[in-house]
């Protein structure tokens, strides 16, 4: 009787292990596939813009940055050439501590729900400040930003670079944007800064040819060869 009970327990443990393993594998490949689709989505929009003569900044330049928040960043020489220049860049919006009519947020090459929960690599986080009088909502689709790119060297910084005096539009030319809803569990200040863990982050390199449906049109951002006019209306 005891032997039969042991055999039953062993069989149940084996079945549970197989099911758990299957769920893990399914989760891993689903997440990896989604990451690839999001990366492909953004890069496809970048290529369309380049073919139209509108040259967005390459995230690859930012990914060459090395260092830690405590010790400071070491920038690639070609990235230093952009310091203080007006640039265009396409990416996904991530909230910091504002969620509607925002004037400050983060831009990443891949979308995440929460900066504090998922800890992206510091080299892939661009801190964005909207132009004076400008405000925007957060959007799900890739956005096109035009602003002044500024390196932020030194020790103990939260961001390696920022974009000042920024204007926002749809990443895809003539595209539309859908407002992003952030759940309360992802809202600061329910999270605290953990500088050491935020340094390394999770490398999400990887890629969606098909963008999800959108229902709120937003106009394109101005070209980066000159700062936008001061009376440019904010994107809604």
Polypeptide structure, described:
The protein is an alpha+beta fold. It has a single domain, classed as Beta Barrel (OB fold (Dihydrolipoamide Acetyltransferase, E2P)). The chain is 29% helix and 20% strand. The strands form three sheets. A five-stranded mixed beta barrel has the order 3-4-5-7-6. Strands 1-2 form a two-stranded antiparallel sheet. A hairpin with a 3-residue loop joins strand 1 and strand 2. The chain is globular. The chain starts with a helix and ends in a 19-residue tail after the last strand. The model is unreliable at 15-31 and 189-236 (pLDDT under 50).
Number of domains: 1
Mean pLDDT: 74
Strand segment count: 9
Biggest sheet, spatial arrangement of strands? 3-4-5-7-6
Percent in strands: 15-25%
Assign the CATH class: Mainly Beta
* Helix/strand structural class: alpha+beta
How many angstroms separate the termini? Answer: 71 Å
Specify the number of helices: 5
Order of SSEs, N→C?
HHEEHEEHEEEEHE
Our Rg estimate from Cα atoms comes to 21 Å
CATH level-two architecture = Beta Barrel
SSE topology sketch:
Layout: H1 2-51, H2 59-63, E1 66-68, E2 72-74, H3 77-80, E3 86-94, E4 104-108, H4 115-118, E5 126-130, E6 143-151, E7 161-170, E8 176-177, H5 195-200, E9 216-217
Parallel strand pairs: 5-7
Antiparallel strand pairs: 1-2, 3-4, 3-6, 4-5, 6-7, 8-9
């Amino acid at each position: 009787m005891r032997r039969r009970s042991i055999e039953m327990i062993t069989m149940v443990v084996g079945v549970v292990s197989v099911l758990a393993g299957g769920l893990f594998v399914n989760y891993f490949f689903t997440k990896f596939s989604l990451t690839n689709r999001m990366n492909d989505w953004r890069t496809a929009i970048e290529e369309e813009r380049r073919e139209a003569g509108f040259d967005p900044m390459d995230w690859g330049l930012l990914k060459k940055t090395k260092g830690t928040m405590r010790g400071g960043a070491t920038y690639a020489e070609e990235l230093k050439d952009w310091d203080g220049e007006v640039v265009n860049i396409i990416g996904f919006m991530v909230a910091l501590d504002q969620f509607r009519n925002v004037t400050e947020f983060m831009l990443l090459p891949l979308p995440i729900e929460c900066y504090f929960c998922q800890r992206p690599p510091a080299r892939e986080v661009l801190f964005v400040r909207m132009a004076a009088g400008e405000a925007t909502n957060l959007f799900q689709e890739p956005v096109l930003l035009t602003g002044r790119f500024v390196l932020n060297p030194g020790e103990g910084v939260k961001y390696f670079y920022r974009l000042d005096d920024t204007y926002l539009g749809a990443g895809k030319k003539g595209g539309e944007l859908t407002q992003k809803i952030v759940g309360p569990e992802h809202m600061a200040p329910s999270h605290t800064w953990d500088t050491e863990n935020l340094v390394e982050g999770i490398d999400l390199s990887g890629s969606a040819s098909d963008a999800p449906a959108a229902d709120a049109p937003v106009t394109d951002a101005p070209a980066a060869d000159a700062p936008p006019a001061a009376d440019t209306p904010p994107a809604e």
